[in-house]
Amino acid sequence: MKYVLVSGGVISGIGKGVIASSTGLLLKTLGLKVTSIKIDPYMNIDAGTMSPLEHGEVFVLNDGGEVDLDLGNYERYLNVTLTHDNNITTGKVYSKVIEKERRGDYLGKTVQIVPHVTNEIQEWIERVARVPVDQSGEEPDVCIVELGGTVGDIESAAFVEAMRQFQFRVGRDNFVSIHVSLVPVINGEQKTKPTQQAIRDLRSLGIMPDLIACRCKLPLEESVIDKISLFCHVGPEQVLAVHDVSSTYHVPQLLENKLLDFLKMRFKLDQIPIGSNHVNAGSVMWNSWKLLTSGHDRLFQKVTIVLVGKYTHLKDSYISVIKALEHSAMRCGRKLDLQWVEASHLEASMNETDPLSYHKAWHLVCSANGILVPGGFGSRGIEGMIAAAQWARENNTPYLGICLGLQVAVIEFARHVCGVEYATSEEFEPQSDKHVIVYMPEINKDKLGGTMRLGLRPTIFQSNSEWSKLRKLHNNSKEVLERHRHRYEVNPKYVELLEQKGLTFVGKDEKAERMEIIEKRDHPYFVGVQYHPEYLSKPLRPSTPIFGLVAASAGLLDEFISSGEPVEWTDVSHFNAESALADSSESVEITNQATIVSTD
Description:
By secondary structure, the chain is an alpha/beta fold. It folds into two domains: 2-292, Rossmann fold, CATH 3.40.50.300; 301-576, Class I glutamine amidotransferase (GATase) domain (Rossmann fold, 3-Layer(aba) Sandwich), CATH 3.40.50.880. The chain is 38% helix and 20% strand. The protein is built from 20 helices and 23 strands. The strands form five sheets. Strands 13-12-14-15-23-22-21-18-19 form a nine-stranded mixed beta sheet, with helices on both faces. Strands 5-2-6-1-7-10-11 form a seven-stranded parallel beta sheet, sandwiched between helices. A hairpin with a 6-residue loop joins strand 21 and strand 22 (515-520). The radius of gyration is 25 Å and the shape is globular. 49% of the residues are buried. It is an enzyme of class 6 (ligase). One of its GO terms (molecular function) is ATP binding. Catalyzes the ATP-dependent amination of UTP to CTP with either L-glutamine or ammonia as the source of nitrogen. Its EC number is 6.3.4.2.
């Protein structure tokens, strides 16, 4: 087993997750089987109870694990299925050590950070690294370990020490350290001192970086590469320049030559037996990836989607939704124009306190090609989301509600079509007697962590759903498997009334007791899903409900359905942006803005 450690210095949020994912992707192009582990030094057991504004999106896995958003990057880039054990936190490790101490596993010894906590970390990594992550059931060849936070933080000290020991435990030929640093530009000059200091700190802790990935605004000058090489005790070929690009999908190509050359040499990859099928699959995947990303850059005709959310101040709160929209826009041959609207700005009270924000928000909603209301918790901004759903329904604007977005669409329909005055959710107004959305009876109300309806679950299309556009996009499948994360559901008492008035529950759970999908028949695309389809979206396999929204917003949905084409890419060599360019009469500025993101 080979291990690649990706750590970061100077500042947090420098893009370690994208670089770790890109490293894994490049190794997969060689036919290797790759897995990933994310280390988060916080004391939380998992990310489930953390606010999206605190640490970005909570990503949910098939097994119900609530984990860091970087595991979403790993799954999207590597096309693997991870488990909750692929996310290690200080809280998990300490809980495990304390559990062993209570059982007497340490035979009366004084339990200490070294060796007991550090040993637990190393054993955890070795155990999880060997778990198969794809349908082949084969053990991975390489494990990418990303160390969250910034080296030098007190929270990560135990993990850094564990990795220092780990490099000797597995042997030099099986361990590579990539350190991600920042090269800022001051008065037009690329400065290397922050990187020099970061490498000095890392080396003082016993880890010698093999590769230095330098995040920079523009490509590094040769003199700067030579200076970093000289003062950081690495060769110039070990300095990777990762400059700002228009899309994170270009990062693997930035790293390709230097990174793969070094890994081939250090890991002696030519000695690892790789089946011809894996090699061919890797080559096909890499060619498809490059075709897709190059085609994306040539797209000019736009599709404008407005995201009406509660956590728009931190875009990483919706990173999987953003990526899923990008995947679908590429499949439609359109450039995504994503506009952000804070839900509370759509509420009537905002017109009195901040009319400028109110009218700007409504201008974006009214001029959008499509509207998406994502998941969330709490009552803030709910009336604004309800207003957005009403606009979409009444004005035939394509709409997709995800989780909370489904619930607000049901509340809106109950109020304005079914005549249920003051219809609401038990989450927002517990004392009301008009709950069209209720707490699920099996959920523990007194404990928040890990108690929601979580993970991969089936949704069954109902017999009255043959007309459903979403079902047709699913090739008329009888069921779909999607990941869930919610505590509330549609109140079964109102289902009959809602359906009589035209809001059809085309998908339900396996017992037909829980409402999973809503859809309006006489609408270009008005869909709500209780699950989170964004978690399973991949660049070459877009999420079906989100693709439906983008296609309908671009005016392509009916044509796509009638053609019988699958949503998944079958041959990206036919991806051609020229047609989109030819149809566009407006010039669109292409920026070189950095899009490498992380919230460590």
